[in-house]
């Protein structure tokens, strides 16, 4: 093979560089000296993409900790409004004393004083909180203990952030540098230590990595553990079912479903058997909780003389969610080319967030890894992140306004409604871009670099066995890496149909 052919083959199989495909990434790289050169990439170096991205993620996480410094120095303890005006609020120190960890109470088994009665978190998150309480030094004032508890949790959550960075970077083998999007996501840095969501996000990211490697059972186990930490990960089983239906991969889906169910049961059944009232608190609390911050339901309620009751909102939100699920299923079966798993995973979690009756600012963490895998376009990602940062500031300024009495420091209700609308529009915008990529696969930045579904595992390059409407006229599946697809005993070369305009983004 000639040197020219070797270079061409290397370019086709080597890692995709965002600075060559994405004008926003190229412009941003000028801040650190410009795009990395070919010789630097080809040379042996300790600075692999995974190591660089993990270090950047830890650095951004540390900046998020620094942003919480005003609260650490007293904002959590000496004034309700100061933790909002500095936008540094966190549930962690407040729940240390408010949920019995400071008193040595055992989650789910010991009753709490007041109306809450039991810890309102899923079992695996409760275990995470309890482990942090075990390593929190005793003695000293309650403020000292709360500070140590927050630091203990911050250290454990930083490990979760590093796991997420590694998993996302390695899921798309040819696009490792897309992981910089999650490492540099400003909304993720700002919200990482508000609550314990990063645990479920890390387990979900690890599950996505396992599925991309064809390890269906491991995917299911990790997704079951993620669901034991937060409810949303189980939603991924829905679009995966439709994808496996279209590709005929029932055995792999069965392994994933069985692994998820088994892992969830192993974590939950012991607590269900011996402390059912405590175990069920999360589910009853979620059902009984009224319309709350961040949702369009709140905007409707605060602008209505007779707001809807909680049961009515629960029903309407469920109907909206089911309609969206039906739309995603129809899109999956009729798309001209089978959607990528990451695209549908992002859409299903996004519509759950959009239709839910509450949107806490840390929920953005659920979407960040999925957004990076679904549409790694810097412009669109940063537009969405800007909307989320605006909402992050908006909710704290609104709470500052409501807690500052006659001083009215902060953002009034109408202004807060605008930030909710901005968050909703930003998320919808990214959803529209993902749907467009599904309907016009040539515009998909991941497929534009070659291949079919790098996060799809057994779905990557698989032929359809069932499709509806446009998906059958004609098939436009990406083939396996050798450019050949097999269907009904026929061998067809689809190489000429591969997208050719996605290499320059």
Automatic annotation (TrEMBL):
Chief subcellular location: membrane
Membrane-related topology note: Multi-pass membrane protein
Subcellular location: Cell membrane
Polar residues: bias regions: 1-13
Transmembrane spans: 46-66, 148-168, 180-211, 217-243, 255-276, 315-334, 341-361, 381-401
Source organism: Streptomyces ziwulingensis
Assigned protein family: Belongs to the glycosyltransferase 87 family.
Protein's name according to its UniProt entry: Glycosyltransferase 87 family protein
Chain residue ranges for the region called Disordered: 1-24
UniProt keyword list: Cell membrane, Membrane, Transferase, Transmembrane, Transmembrane helix
Pfam families membership: GT87
